[in-house]
Amino acid sequence: MKVDVLLGLQWGDEGKGKIVDVITPDYGVIARFQGGPNAGHTLEFEGRKHVLHTIPSGIFHDNQLNVVGNGVVIDPVIFRREIEKLKEHNVDVNKQLLISRKAHLILPTHRLLDAASEQEKGNKKIGSTLKGIGPTYMDKTGRNGLRVGDVLGPQFEERYESLRGKHLRLLGHFEGFEFDLDPMEKEWLDAVEYMRDLTFIDSEHYLNNQLRKGERILAEGAQGSLLDIDFGSYPFVTSSNTISAGACTGLGIAPNRIGEVFGIFKAYCTRVGSGPFPTELHDETGELLRAKGHEFGATTGRPRRCGWIDLPALKYAIMINGVTRLIMMKADVLSAFEEVKVCTHYEYNGEEIDYLPYSIDPSEVKPVYKSLPGWHQDLTGMRNIDELPKELNDYIEYLEKQLEVPITVVSVGPDREQTIRRDSVLA
Ligand code: GDP
Ligand code: IMO
Ligand code: MG
């Protein structure tokens, strides 16, 4: 058996949570491979909306196990809150959730360091979610971090004190940064205590054993390919590998065990936080996209920047990830427009190019658009491929031709049910 990977091809918030929830019944195990509570994955079903941050989006199904992989960073405070919320919905977390001993812990001082670093950057700030992601991955690669498995070790308190001391010395270098660590720390230590009752595993062994037994595994990504630490719009990125290779390092899965790579994209584009965004619209069209798509962050509530779909960027993401099937989200949002635009090329140093160059700063890169007729029809009640308007089918076929990968699912609303499969086998 192989591990299928599902990940975002843009700047995050493509709708990963919704689709993982929809396809979970096809799998035995759902495993998150990177990121942490910077993610906000929204699921809607039976008239209810749920937002998950660290826990895999398969958790609402009874017959699947959910694994938080070694590549994930966990804030015990947020994790505990998420678990408590799930218990209110009768999810048996103890039975359904397994956590890698090798996942790293976000300390309260990581959050402070994130905030201090952003404050110091001023108008050059990354627009971080302020969840402590960057400093935690820095400590991981710097070989200072604390891991989930350490929580049960005899010297946990000592090791915590030592790292905290180091962070406090670092914080002393940020001028004018004020903080009150005590209440944050108390809450964190209580949450660590709470975590001790959860199920910790050596997830690389567990997952490979499951594969050997013939179980199907779905790896769930967070953020998006254009936020990848290596291939995203650096430095305006997150601090992990969000691409398919991240599923190998974030779960302990060998590259030759990867099967399908599902790439999710919105029928348009959004970005939250700072950094270049070639097709961003600063006009009423951008505002209409935001209003119709309810484009406000699931984690921070910040308004998302909006623009037309960007083919050079998508082609790049497809290449880096080895995408085998595409999933197009939020087609219903484009119903608001007479015509829909697609960025086919960039104008770059007086030339037309169709690839993503080293710098995609708007001062150097100008998008070139092709217009296609809109469909102007409410899609949200449609459930069948035959019902889709001709103009939407034309749009889909045009994208497939340009991207050279089949679009196997079209999403027409946030609910589980509002999902149209274009081929009989998704997974
Ligand atoms: P994720 O981070 O990739 O899981 O995506 P988010 O949950 O942050 O953002 C996607 C948002 O779009 C959520 O509010 C979803 O409920 C919503 N959504 C997902 N699919 C669709 C769709 O096809 N149409 C509409 N209108 N909303 C959708
Ligand atoms: P999901 O999984 C959208 C963005 C932040 C910021 C940059 C760095 O819901 O798609 P960080 O807190 O990671 O240091 O922030 O990355 N960002 C996201 N944007 N969706 C996400 O996750 C994101 N996670 C981080 O806005 O620009
Ligand atoms: Mg999100």
In words, what does this structure look like?
The chain is an alpha/beta fold and 427 residues long. The chain is 31% helix and 22% strand. The strands form 5 sheets. It has a 10-stranded mixed sheet with strand order 9-7-5-2-10-1-11-15-19-20, with helices on both faces. It is globular, with a radius of gyration of 21 Å. It starts with a strand and ends in a 6-residue tail after the last strand. The mean pLDDT is 96. Guanosine-5'-diphosphate (GDP) binds next to helix 1 and strand 3. 6-O-phosphoryl inosine monophosphate binds next to helix 5 and strand 10.
Helix/strand layout:
Layout: E1 3-8, H1 16-23, E2 29-32, E3 41-45, E4 48-52, E5 65-68, E6 73-74, H2 76-88, H3 93-96, E7 97-100, E8 104-105, H4 108-121, H5 133-141, H6 156-171, H7 181-195, E9 200-201, H8 203-212, E10 217-224, H9 244-251, E11 258-266, E12 269-271, H10 284-292, E13 305-307, E14 309-310, H11 311-321, E15 325-329, E16 339-348, E17 351-353, E18 365-373, H12 390-403, E19 407-411, E20 419-421
Helix pairs in contact: 2-7, 4-5, 4-6
Bound molecules: guanosine-5'-diphosphate, 6-O-phosphoryl inosine monophosphate and magnesium ion.
Residues 8, 11-13, 35, 38-41, 126-129, 131, 133-134, 222-224, 227, 238, 272-273, 298 line the site of 6-O-phosphoryl inosine monophosphate (IMO).
